[in-house]
Amino acid sequence: MSGLIAADTSAADKRVAFRAGLTSGSIQRFPGAFNPLVAKLIQEIGFEGVYVSGAVISADLALPDIGLTTLTEVSERGQQIARVTELPVLIDADTGFGEPMSAARTVTVLEDAGIAGCHFEDQVNPKRCGHLDGKAVVPTEEMVRRLRAAVSARREPNFVICARTDAAGIEGIDAAIERAKDYADAGADLIFVEALITEDDFAKFRAAVSIPLLANMTEFGKSELLTAKTLESIGYNAVIYPVSTLRLAMWAAENGLREIFAEGTQSGLLDRMQPRSRLYELLQYERYNEFDSEVFNFSLGRDQ
């Protein structure tokens, strides 16, 4: 039954793998998964981890990314995804869902959900998408309290607490660098700097901050879309592609639905669909059948 129904790798081992990856010298690539099945695909293709985006969870619920989702909704989706993959899962914890004590509770809930790490951001609550204008950040001291609360609540020492700063687009890169240093001093294991624009910006940030760094390569935002190889050469330790799979899926779904509406049939779309056989392969259907047969196929001895 190995690997069926749930992953074999323990949450503790996934956290160890995440931390090891951050210091390996090889960039850790974390595409976003909008559901557990996509997480299985990310694993099969060979990526190092899975990302769960708050913007994607919001969009999946047909809500904008402005802090409307709850800890319960986010942790449940994270648990569903972490359950099926052998890879570490990094999840977006927004601003911690409240005051510093709420950030502390968030860490414990996400640990219990089998997540390998989360990031907290320094935006004012309610937050907004990091690549939109009009953001506001809290004072550094307030974010430091948020982080210290999260770190103090951690029971699993390998659970990765990442601090995201949105200050670069508001206060400038130098101010964001100073914030990152303060966040590292507060106990953050990883820094996520949002909405840098050019390769030089990313390099400047790397040169100034000593702890592991995460880059966000989201489409249609402010950042130049750098390759993983380029980011690795600059010295970044991790990269996320938060909304890519949802955008790909929604593009395909919208175009397909429009064709069905116009033509009255999906027959012209079959070459753009995942075949039943590929879905069954990804779900390991045959192994479930084998397991079912092993459990229920038996014969009674003569003395019974």
What features would you describe in this structure?
- By secondary structure, the protein is α/β, with parallel strands linked by helices.
- The protein has two domains: 11-246, TIM Barrel; 251-295, no CATH class.
- It has 13 helices and eight strands.
- The protein has helices at 11-22, 36-45, 54-60, 71-84, 100-112, 140-153, 168-171, 173-185, 199-208, 228-234, 244-263, 276-283, 285-296, and strands spanning 28-31, 50-52, 89-92, 117-121, 160-165, 190-193, 213-216, 238-241.
- An eight-stranded parallel β-sheet has the order 1-8-7-6-5-4-3-2.
- Strand 3, helix 5 (100-112) and strand 4 (117-121) form a beta-alpha-beta unit.
- The longest helix is centred in the last third of the chain and has 20 residues, at 244-263.
- It is globular and about 60 Å long.
- The protein starts with 10 loop residues before the first helix and ends in an 8-residue tail after the last helix.
- The mean pLDDT is 93.
